[in-house]
Specification:
With 988 residues, the protein is of the alpha+beta class. Among the domains are: 49 residues, no CATH class; 60 residues; 166 residues, 3-Layer(aba) Sandwich (Rossmann fold), CATH 3.40.50.300; 110 residues, Elongation Factor Tu (Ef-tu), domain 3 (Beta Barrel); 99 residues, Rossmann fold (3-Layer(aba) Sandwich); 97 residues, Translation factors (Elongation Factor Tu (Ef-tu), domain 3, Beta Barrel), CATH 2.40.30.10. The protein has 34 helices and 35 strands. The strands form nine sheets. The protein has a six-stranded mixed sheet with strand order 9-10-8-11-12-13. It has a six-stranded antiparallel barrel with strand order 15-16-22-19-18-23. The chain has a six-stranded antiparallel β-barrel with strand order 28-29-34-31-30-35. α10 packs antiparallel against α11 and α25 runs parallel beside α26. The longest helix is centred in the middle third of the chain and has 22 residues. The relative contact order is 0.04. It binds guanosine-5'-triphosphate (GTP). Guanosine-5'-triphosphate (GTP) binds next to α24. The site of guanosine-5'-triphosphate has 19 residues, from α24. This is Translation initiation factor IF-2. Belongs to the TRAFAC class translation factor GTPase superfamily. Classic translation factor GTPase family. IF-2 subfamily.
Length: 988
């Protein structure tokens, strides 16, 4: 049976190289390395050579055999006669068996060992002769020396100790290898004579097994120290060596290379949803059961995973940062399994990091590095996150510097630099007022639009205004009818006749002083009537946005016909865009001429139905009651045609018609409900006043209390803190705090407007600007109308101007003359102009003081002309959008001529008192006499007593000499004005 040289060397306890040399010397050539095999003949030959060299008995053969070896030099040991006993005491039963085996015949041993050896070779290394097999560790293991005693006692501790020795040798350094044979020589020497045999399967310890044993840890495997102790144990029983030898260096205990134990992984605290807990109580399967099993399986299989497997997973992660997350999400499944996948991925991630990164704190380093990388990349890109700079912004002012910067896109530092240049040191949270913001925008070339902050008024009241009732909620409501007409034509009398009252006699001078509003029954229908002191009041409500009237009844006395106020009433009714019914009253009067009245009405655009027109004319008499029922039927018929509807099931909105302070009840306001139902206890805001409705009274029977007022119902209410203005709209709100806030806000705004002056509501220039910008809403056909109220000195002037205006034709913009009457501009004109966004054209007439004042308050423009073509030219330019920039007349003041003085060679000097404004030198003077303009002339001289002065202010007297006009008379009104050049607002 072949045996390798190194195995034999071990058996003989000599160095392999020395054995190679011995082989050569013994004539066994061709054995150049320790891995070379010796066949039986060669083995016998070598052994014979060794025996020949030694020439001693068995007990001495080992030591002599070793003595023949040149190196290393070992101290000779004296032969101990009691050696077998020592062996027996050392090995115990094993030693005894070993001794008994010596008695066995060599043939038996050889055959048995050969059989076991063959079996072992077949199992472990079937082709030991192949070069590959020779180089494999398994082949090395085959040559592990064993003792014959091991054949029978294969699991004894001594066998294990013997097996451990070469393993330890493999781990320790060279000097230790040389020590081993010395320590074991005494025990192995008796078996030296045993024939060489192969190893058994039980003797074989694979490399992997060796490693396994080594890495078992302190508790799992015997330490080399223990082995040494085991071997050292019987030493005291041994006979000490005769010759003292130097103590051999002891091999240091092999270092424990087991990995640091990690603390046991803690189970995560997982809170189950309540449903799962409930379900589990009811016996349902626990939701985490499957997940736990799956996770446990994964954990077990994870331990078996090789490093290569882990690295394989790691690689794509190193290359692509997005991959790991993708892998994690891939591993996720629905429900709890998804959680398991996520945890598993996290565990793998930790492992990965440990393998790739450093041992100490590798986790943190890797994790930190991975997380920081995107940030570094982001910062290196230097992408500006600042808002783009804008060319025009809408800002709510005041605002902070930060808000300004964010809105405009200007860097804060840039804005601060600009402000520093203006001498202002501001912080980022400093507040910028409108002026500063405008300055900054101008500096940086940004168009600034100041945005009005959205108030609670906007949010709440606009929400109510925009509320649209569904068709199902809408029900028919009574029409609200207003009587309009000339004074004393019988409005009040007719209404009294309808409701059965006699109010006329109760009013001072028979003139209606208050607005009256009643609701009357006509069969199963109701009609609300509103009687106003004049059409101004009617228009006043419209001017405030409260168009309560559904139907206008124009009262025309059949004996008088159309009068100036009738014309105005027609204009107001037309401007309100409501159906008009004409009541030809006083038909009982002997001088009644209905045909003449109808003709006049036709001339004012009201063509009667009996003449083929669309205006219903009812002949009535408030005295006799003639035609009253017909008038009511006509009203109801008109109402039916127009289908006036409202939703009674919502909070009320309406209009205040009138209010007064009463000594006992406080504020008593007359309201009319437009929509919804007003109830006692409702919180109401009306204009700049608010309150909670304490009580409601019927307007016909003031002592009758009402609990609620449905749509179109006029009522008197108490509960307001102050008297609201006529024409103000009221709203019912849910919260009285909101009502208070809105009222206070409006009050504050009203004061500001009074202090800040007025703005022109509409003017020619403004109209043109709004026309160009498209801010003027047109009618259904898209036609925009320029509303004009024309006042002229004569009927002829009116006709001439209207004729000229008719020539103006523009497809999209048209002139609408709302009213054209003779005489000076009145308050009614201003009211109508204010309500209708109209411009008053005064031709050779002037406004009276009340009208002038009201026009200033309302911002109504009154344009005065004295040449007809100038009127039409301006309007033509306006319509064509080619209004030239021209000199604008600036009114300076007015003076009353008290006396006149005629001086020869100089002319007439007017002694005047300045009524208002200022009279300046070099101005022009417009002379007005009896409300009509005579002409305008340059101011020749202006004196105070005998001194020329630059100006004379209100309340002072002065002497005025006009250039080229001496026909000045006492009572004339002199209006001073100057012509100034103004820049164009629009280019042609
Ligand atoms: N004969 C006759 N007289 C009437 C008729 N209607 C009104 N009157 C009288 O005309 C006068 C004026 O009547 P009012 O009802 O006050 O006229 P009004 O239009 O209301 O007047 P203001 O309230 O000032 O706008 C009263 O004296 C009435 O008696 C009528 O149909 N026939």
């Amino acid at each position: 049976m072949p045996i390798r040289i190194y195995a034999l060397a071990k058996e003989l306890q000599v160095d392999s190289k020395q054995l190679v040399d011995i082989c050569n010397r013994a004539g066994v050539t061709g054995k150049g390395s320790a891995l070379a095999s010796l066949d039986d003949d060669e083995l016998v030959k070598v052994k014979a050579f060794l025996n020949k060299d030694s020439g001693g008995d068995d007990s001495r053969r080992g030591s002599q055999g070793r003595a023949t070896v040149d190196e290393p030099v070992r101290p000779e040991r004296p032969v101990q006669p009691s050696k077998p006993k020592q062996i027996r005491t050392l090995g115990g039963p094993l030693a005894g068996r070993g001794r008994s085996k010596d008695d066995l015949s060599h043939e038996a041993d050889e055959s048995e060992l050969a059989a076991s050896s063959v079996a072992t070779e077949e199992e472990v290394a079937p082709s030991t002769d192949t070069p590959e097999a020779e180089s494999t560790p398994e082949v090395e293991a085959e040559a592990t020396p064993t003792t014959p005693a091991e054949d029978t006692v294969d699991t004894s501790a001594s066998v294990f100790e013997e097996e451990e020795t070469p393993v330890a040798e493999a781990e320790v350094e060279a000097p230790e290898v040389e020590e081993k044979p010395q320590e074991t020589a005494e025990t192995e020497t008796p078996h030296r004579d045993a024939p060489v045999r192969g190893i058994r399967r039980g003797d074989y310890i694979a490399i992997g097994s060796q490693r396994k044993v080594r890495t078992l840890g302190a508790g799992g495997a015997k330490k080399p120290d223990d082995d040494r102790k085991g071997r050292d144990k019987p030493k005291p029983k041994k006979a000490g060596p005769v010759v003292k030898i130097a103590k051999m260096p002891t091999a240091p205990a092999p270092k424990q290379t087991t990995e640091k134990k990690e603390p046991a992984a803690q189970k995560p605290i997982m809170q189950l949803p309540k449903e799962a807990i409930k379900g589990a109580k009811k016996g349902q399967k626990a939701p985490l059961e499957e997940f736990t099993k799956l996770h446990e399986k994964k954990r077990k299989s994870k331990d078996r995973k090789s490093v290569a497997d882990i690295e394989e997973v790691t690689e794509p992660r190193e290359g692509d940062e997005a991959t790991p997350r993708g892998k994690k999400s891939k591993g996720k499944s629905t429900g709890m399994a998804g959680m398991a996948g996520s945890r598993d991925a996290r565990t793998q991630g930790r492992k990965r990091i440990r393998n790739v990164g450093s041992v100490d704190g590798g986790d943190d380093v890797e994790v930190r590095g991975r997380r920081q990388r995107p940030r570094r990349e982001k910062s290196s890109n230097k992408v500006s996150t600042a808002a783009p700079r804008k060319t025009d912004v809408a800002l709510e002012l005041p605002c902070t510097l930060r808000e300004f910067s964010e809105a405009t896109g200007l860097p804060v530092q840039s804005v601060q630099r600009t402000l520093m240049g203006l001498g202002q040191m501001v912080t980022i949270n400093a507040t910028l007022d409108a002026e500063t913001a405008e300055l900054l925008c101008a500096e940086h070339g940004i168009d600034l639009k100041i945005k009005e902050p959205e108030s609670i008024e906007d949010t709440l009241l606009n929400q109510i205004d925009d509320m649209v009732d569904s068709d199902e909620d809408l029900v028919e409501r009574p029409p609200v009818v207003t009587f309009l007409g000339h004074v004393d034509h019988g409005k009040t009398s007719l209404l009294d006749k309808i409701i059965g009252l006699n109010v006329v006699s109760g009013e001072a001078g028979g003139i209606t002083q208050h607005i009256r509003a009643y609701i009357v029954d006509k069969g199963d229908k109701k009609i609300s009537f509103v009687d106003t002191p004049g059409h101004e009041a009617f228009t006043e409500m419209r001017a405030r946005g409260a168009n309560v009237t559904d139907i206008a009844v124009l009262i025309v006395a059949a004996d008088d016909g159309v009068m100036p106020q009738t014309e105005e009433a027609i204009s107001h009714a037309k401007a309100a865009n409501v159906p008009i019914i004409v009541a030809l009253n006083k038909m009982d009067v002997p001088g009644a001429n209905p045909d003449k009245a109808l003709q006049q009405l036709s001339q004012h655009g009201l063509l009667p139905a009996e003449w083929g027109g669309d205006v219903e004319v009812v002949k009535t008499s408030a005295m006799t009651g003639e035609g009253v029922d017909t008038l009511l039927e006509t009203i109801l018929l008109t109402s039916e045609i127009h289908e006036y509807k409202a939703n009674p099931n919502r909070q009320a909105v309406g209009v205040c018609l009138e209010a007064e302070q009463e000594s006992d009840r406080g504020v008593l306001a007359k309201l009319i409900v437009n929509n919804g139902t007003l109830k006692v206890g409702d919180v109401v805001v009306c204009g700049s006043t608010f309150g909670r409705i304490k009580a409601m009274y019927d307007t016909l029977n003031p002592r009758v209390r009402l609990e609620e007022a449905p749509p179109s119902t006029p009522i008197n209410v108490t509960g307001f803190d102050e008297a609201p203005a006529a024409g103000e709209r009221f709203y019912v709100l849910n919260d009285i705090a909101d009502a208070r806030e809105i009222a206070e806000m409006r009050s504050h705004r009203s004061r500001e407007q009074q202090l800040g002056g007025h703005t022109v509501k509409i003017s020619f220039e403004d109209f043109q600007a709004r026309l160009q910008s498209g801010n003027l809403a047109g009618d259904e056909a898209g036609i925009v109308y320029l509303n004009i109220i024309l006042r002229a000195d004569t009927r002829g002037s009116i006709e001439a101007i209207q004729k000229e205006l008719d020539k103006l034709d523009h497809p999209e913009v048209k002139v609408r003359v709302m009213q054209a009457t003779v005489g000076g501009v009145t308050v009614a004109d201003v009211t109508l102009a204010s309500a209708s966004d109209a411009v008053i054209v005064a031709f050779n007439v002037i406004p009276d003081e009340a009208a002038r004042s009201l026009a200033d308050d309302r911002g109504v423009e009154i344009r005065r002309y004295d040449i007809i073509y100038k009127v039409t030219e301006d309007i033509k330019m306006l319509l064509e959008g080619r209004l030239r920039p021209e000199s604008r007349v600036t009114e300076l003041g007015r003076a009353l001529v008290q006396r006149t003085f005629t001086v020869s060679r100089i002319g007439t000097i007017a002694g005047c008192r300045v009524l208002g404004g200022i009279i300046e030198r070099n101005c022009r003077i417009r002379v007005n006499r009896d409300g009509r303009g005579i002409g305008d002339y340059p101011l020749d001289s202006l004196k105070r007593e005998k001194d020329d002065v630059k100006e004379v202010r209100e309340g002072y007297e002065c002497g005025i000499k006009l250039g080229g006009f001496n026909d000045i008379k006492e009572g004339d009104i002199l209006e001073a004005f100057k012509i100034e050049e103004f820049a164009r607002t629009l280019e042609s």
